[in-house]
Amino acid sequence: MTLLGCGSKASEDNSTEDQNTEKLDRRVFVSKAQFERSKMALGHIELKSFPITVQSSGMIDVPPENRAVVSATMGGYIKTIPLLIGDKVRKGQVLLTLENPDFIRLQQDYMEVNEKLTFLKSEYERQKTMMSEHITSQKSFLKAESIYKTTLATYNGLRKQLRLLNISPSQVESGNVTSVVRMYAPISGSVTKVNVSRGTYVSPASSIMEIINNDHIHLELSVFEKDIMKLKKGQEINFKVPESSADVFAAEVHLIGTAIEDNRTIKVHGHLKNEEQAHFLPGMFVEAEIITDTTEVHAISETAVVAIENAHLLLKLNEITDDAYYFDQVSVKTGSTYNGKVALTEMPGVTTEDTILTKGAFHLLGGD
Question: In which family does this protein belong, per the annotation (predicted)?
Answer without folding.
Answer: Belongs to the membrane fusion protein (MFP) (TC 8.A.1) family.
